[in-house]
Design brief:
Chain lengths: 255, 259, 281
């Protein structure tokens, strides 16, 4: 089977996995636990935040997407399934009504919300460096899930700047799928870690009283000492780790 | 700034009169046919022989052509060029530029993919032009979609333009306070915070009150919900849906048989 | 027969140190118009939420005492049952628009769809309610295209179609301009005249004095005063505790201190009373 059809198959498999997960979560009552009336009123606002910030970033010409801040927000204070559905609906509505190119990425958005929510449930959203770890895990997931979609729907080249990296890798003789995969692994951490940090900053700015209304306020209880210096240490540490990470990736590629 | 976020055009036509689910099924089927059918020229035929005539049937041909030329063509055109250069298929280069090259095979594949995407976006555009969101949601809810999903989708569609307008206001306000959105990278990154902050915090406040408001109007009631409007579902609708599904099954069988 | 019965009610919001309400005892009879006044943080909104059942079901927290509305005990019921008896409206009309509907007519029907009212009855209720509150001409407009006063009237109407037994209003005019305020009070007066039980939080003393049968002054979660508008709004206790008073009362008080208003004559709260009082000198 040619590469394109193979990746379309992965796309279909991803959708099937999503459906199965949702059915599982619904029947084990995990899905319902994330949802309150206030979850339902938060999600539309979160989706609109995704889109508005995604568009602000384009106006500011920054090299990131930042189109999942709302998704992560919902994932942390409501739960992984609420976050997953938020991401999914966001891409579907965005694709249907604003920019069709947003539509094929909805499985990625689903898993971004799911992984962010699971990390938060596991206590990985309580101070700056933990948030960075969450961002990193979300990035890895996003990179993995978006690769088959990128190859299957777009042949590996999307309309974003990261495609130059893919092009370079193709030029030096790499195959298509590894090129796209590596590009995504390089690009996603910046975007997703920034997204999670921004979402964390927002949560810090919300009153405890307000957060208590949501299904999982305990995920957002900031550990004491989440101060500026901790942030600085975390950011420096993250940059260092990312530098090592990129070095390793590039080394593996050029073997 | 657009006030409403939908393509819907209010008109009386045969297409408008069809049940929303029928039109949605049509959009999906036309898309899937384009991707699954073994015949190379499927997407193009779908566009020329099905979508364009249907746009006339739905009396939305002007809007469709406007959207097709303004939005869909540029996007798929870009896709076409990208794929023509980057798809790693074929050996004989017809054209070369730096390390980019075009082969007959990559050209063919690029055209095929671009046409498929064009057909997909066109068929959904046709759907959106002739179906009002609340009609669609009403119908889907009647068929079993949880009403909360219907609430989320329509609510989102109405909130997005409001949020964008808010964003514009905040950008303008911050600019008048000296915020620089066009200079150095660091400045632009710094500009992110005074824009995102007010936007997000200003919008989250209303979430709690709105939850109370809809709760006060029975949002979590366990009674069987009724609907203000009755969306008709005729025999023609049902027949059409079955025909469409049959088409998919035939195409899949054809492809499996031929491979 | 008391349609609202709060007995020995003490309530503390989650994650707070002090109770929002302390030992509240409040009975409201059917058809009464009760106004609640008090400084910010006094617990007025909390009382409203309690009557409507949102305290404790929506806000959680710790509640002791008895809450009974329209014969149903709050603690033993679920929120979706309790909201059917009490109509709740608050300050910001924009936040009360559901967002799920494209026209005012549909917006008004939203609540009725949720509780399963048959289609014909739904339409009848919506049309009657629109006539009552004077918004029939807004039926096909988008709720988001309306002015503040119009939106608030739509919000009130959307509650009235649910046919509640008690109307609880939390500062419905504080974000309105004068025209909007008059429109909203017009609706409230219409409902009161038809015998609806109304509980209203307001700061606009002149309006309260005109409509209310009783005024309750709340401070720091406790009831300070409970009586007729005359008694409460001109009482020295109110003024000493730092509540706002109406301009007419303020003027007449100063006039009294200067000997221009008879010492034993009750102070006015409304313009009419003030005019009458001053011209009778």
């Amino acid at each position: 089977m040619d590469i394109i059809s193979q990746n379309i198959l992965y796309f279909i498999i991803a959708i099937a996995i999503i459906i199965l997960l949702l059915i599982w979560a619904y029947s084990t009552k995990r899905l319902q636990a994330d949802f309150n009336t206030i979850t339902w009123t938060l999600i539309p606002v979160a989706i609109a935040i995704n889109i508005a910030i995604g568009e602000i970033v384009v106006t500011l010409k920054l090299p990131v997407y930042l189109d999942s801040i709302g998704t992560v927000l919902v994932a942390v204070v409501c739960g992984p399934w609420a976050g997953a559905l938020t991401g999914m609906f966001a891409n579907i509505i965005w694709g249907a009504l604003i920019d069709p190119n947003a539509f094929p990425w909805f499985p990625v958005a689903f898993f971004i919300g799911l992984v962010a929510g699971l990390c938060a449930k596991g206590g990985l959203y309580k101070n700056w460096w933990k948030v960075i770890v969450t961002g990193f895990l979300v990035a890895l997931t996003a990179a993995t899930v978006s690769t088959p979609i990128s190859v299957g729907v777009y042949g590996g080249i999307t309309a974003s700047g990261s495609s130059f990296i893919t092009a370079y890798l193709l030029q030096i003789g790499q195959n298509l799928v590894p090129s796209v995969l590596i590009t995504n692994y390089l690009v996603e951490p910046f975007d997703k870690i920034s997204t999670c940090l921004l979402a964390f900053a927002i949560i810090q700015g919300l009153s405890t009283r307000f957060l208590a209304r949501f299904p999982r306020p305990e995920n957002a209880q900031i550990e004491q000492g989440a101060t500026r210096t901790q942030l600085l240490i975390a950011v420096i540490g993250a940059v260092a780790i990312l530098a090592i990470y990129i070095f390793v990736v590039v080394k593996t590629v050029t073997q | 700034m657009q006030e409403r976020l939908s393509f819907y055009v209010r008109r009386k036509s045969d297409l408008h009169a069809l049940n929303p689910l029928t039109k949605l099924t049509l959009a999906f089927v036309l898309t899937i046919l384009g991707f699954i059918s073994p015949w190379y020229w499927t997407p193009q035929s779908v566009i020329l022989l099905v979508i364009i005539p249907l746009s006339f049937l739905g009396k939305v041909q002007r809007e469709y052509f406007s959207i097709a030329t303004r939005l869909i063509l540029p996007a798929t055109g870009f896709l076409f060029f990208m794929q023509a250069f980057f798809q790693p298929v074929g050996k004989d280069y017809i054209f070369q530029f730096w390390f980019l090259h075009i082969t007959p095979e990559s050209l063919a594949l690029a055209f095929s993919n671009a046409s498929r995407i064009f057909a997909m976006v066109s068929s959904f555009t046709l759907f959106l032009l002739t179906t009002h969101p609340s009609e669609l949601m009403s119908d889907l809810t009647r068929r079993g979609l949880p009403p909360q999903f219907s609430y989320v989708i329509i609510s989102t569609i109405q909130i997005i333009p409001q949020m964008r307008a808010k964003a514009q206001t905040i950008i303008a306000a911050q600019r008048s306070r000296g915020l620089d959105t066009t200079s150095s990278f660091i400045r632009r990154v710094g500009a992110l915070f005074p824009l995102v902050g007010p936007l997000v915090f200003g919008s989250l406040v209303e979430v709690e009150e709105r939850a109370i408001a809809i709760e006060a109007r029975g949002f979590t009631s366990t009674r069987v919900k009724t609907s203000l409007y009755d969306i008709p579902d005729t025999n023609l609708d049902r027949a059409l849906r079955w025909v469409l599904i049959a088409l998919i099954i035939i195409t899949i069988s054809l492809r499996l048989w031929l491979s | 027969m008391a349609i609202v019965n709060l007995q020995n009610l003490t309530y503390k919001y989650p994650l707070t140190d002090s109770p929002a309400l302390q030992n509240i005892n409040l009975q409201v009879n059917e058809g009464e118009f009760v106004a609640i006044v008090g400084p910010n943080g006094a617990g007025k909104s909390t009382v409203c939420y309690t009557i409507a059942g949102f305290v404790p079901h929506f806000f959680k927290g710790e509640m002791t005492g008895n809450v009974e509305v329209a014969g149903i005990e709050s603690q033993g019921s679920t929120l979706n049952e309790l909201v059917l008896n009490v109509g709740l409206a608050f300050q910001n009309p924009f936040n009360q628009i559901s967002g799920a509907k494209y026209t005012v007519f549909e917006e008004l029907a939203f609540g009725l769809e949720n509780i399963g009212i048959p289609r014909e009855e739904m339409k009848a209720r919506v049309e009657d309610a629109m006539k009552l509150t004077g918004i029939s001409d807004l039926a096909d407009r988008s709720p988001y295209s309306l002015s503040g006063g119009q939106q608030q009237r739509v919000a009130l109407t959307s509650i009235l179609v649910m046919q509640p037994k008690v109307l609880v209003l939390d500062e419905p005019t504080s974000q309105m301009d004068p025209i909007g305020t008059r429109e909203v009070f017009g609706v409230i007066r219409t409902m009161a005249e038809r015998g609806m039980t109304v509980v209203l939080i307001e700061h606009k003393m002149e309006w309260i004095a005109q409509f209310a049968d009783r005024v309750i002054a709340l401070k720091a979660g406790q009831i300070l005063l409970d009586g007729t508008p005359q008694e409460v709004l001109t009482s020295d206790l109110l003024i000493d505790q730092g509540f706002g008073i109406s301009r007419y009362t303020s003027v007449a008080r100063q006039a009294r201190n200067q000997g221009l208003w008879q010492k034993d004559k009750p102070l006015p709260v409304t313009l009419d009373e003030a005019v009458e009082g001053f011209s009778a000198q």
